[in-house]
User: What shape does this take?
Amino acid sequence: MTGVQTCALPIFASAIASLLRAAAADAPVALLCDDVDVADEASLELLRGLVFRLADAPVVIVCSARPELLERRPGWGDGLDLHVRVDLAPLARRHIEEMARDRLAPVAELPADLVRNLADRAEGNPLILVESLHLLVDAGVVVRADGAPWTVRGDALEALALPGTVAEVVQARLDRLPPEDRAVLGCAAVVGRTFWEGAIEHLYRTVAGAMPTHLAAAAVPAERGVVAAALARLRDRHLVRGRDVSSLQGERELVFAEWATQEVAYETWSARVRAPLHRAAAVWLERHAPGDAWAAQLALHHDRGGDLRRAAEAHARAAAHASALGRNADALRHLARVREIHVEAEGTPAATSGADRRVASWRERARLRLELGDALRRAGKLDEAERAYDEARRGVLAHERRPEAAPEAAETI
Assistant: This one.
C-alpha cells in the first residue's frame, strides 16, 4: 500500500473490489495473501473492506500469517460474518515425509534415511524442511542435473549436520555464500523485505569500509555488474525473488523469498555497521522515493541510523500522510514514536540548556502532541488523549514562563 499516494483507501478498495468482481463473473476467484503479518495497517484494513464489498460475489480471500499478526492486531478479522480463522498445527510426520519425497522426486535413488532425518529435524514445520532442502543443494549433498536424474552424495550427507531451527538452517545456508553475496544480502536485509538493486549498489559502495573483517574481500567499489551478478546468484539459490513491477520507477525491485532469510541476514551485521547502513538507505530513499508516501520507511532508517531529529520529522510526515488516507492506527503509531523521541531528547542533561531544540522546537512539540491527542481521541482512547493535550498545554506554558527564552530561528517572522 506504500505506493497509494493520491487516492484515499476507500476509493482504492472500491477499485480492487470491482476488479475482483469482474474476474469472478466468469469463474470463482481465490485471492491468496501470504505473510500478512508484515502487511501495513492500510493493507489490513483493505482486506477487511474487501470482505464486506464482495460478500455476495464468488470470491474467497485466503490470508496466511505468523502469530505476530494477532499480537499486533488482536482479533483481526473477528466480527466478520464470513470470516473463518484456522490455527495451523505442525504438519503430521507422514505429510512432512510426503512433502520431502515430492520435492526430491527427481532423485533416482532417494535414501529412506535422508527422508526420515529431514522429518526429524523439521518437527512438523514445512519452512524448516524447505530451507533444509535448499541447504542440501547448497552443500552439494543433492546434485541437480537438467534432463537427468538427481543424485545424492552419501559422503557429503555424512559430513553435513542438519540444523534443527529455521534460523539455524538459514544461517548455515548464508555461511556457504561467497563474501560478496553475503554482503549484498546483508545490505538488502537493511533496506527491508522489499528492496531495490540501486539501493543495494549505494549501500554496498558507501559502507564498504565499515564492513566486518570477514567481508573485507567484498569491500570493493560496487559497480552495477558486481551487485547484479550477486543478486542473480541469490535468486538461483532461492534466497530472493525478482518482481515484475517495481513500486519505484526505473528501479529493479526484489523481495526476500522468506522472512527468516531477511531476519538472519540482518542479524549478521553488528550494531556498529547497521547504523551507517541505515543512514545510507535513508539517503538513497530521499533521492529516489520523494513524497510523503515513503516517509514511514524513511523514518525507520533514520531511527535505526541514530538520526533522531530526521527520524522525528519523517515520523511526523508519515503520520500526516496516514491521517490524510484515513489510516488512524498508522498515524497513531508514528505520532507515539515522535513523542518518545521528544521525551528522550528532553530528558538528556543537555536539554536543560535548549539542546533538545535540535530535535524539534517547542512549538513543533506542542503541535505534534495535539495531533497525537486527536489520533488517540479518534481511536476512542479518551484518557490518553487528554494526557497528550495536557502535555501540549504544559509545554506551551513552560516556554511562556521563560523570560530569558529568545525566539527560535525557525519561528522568527
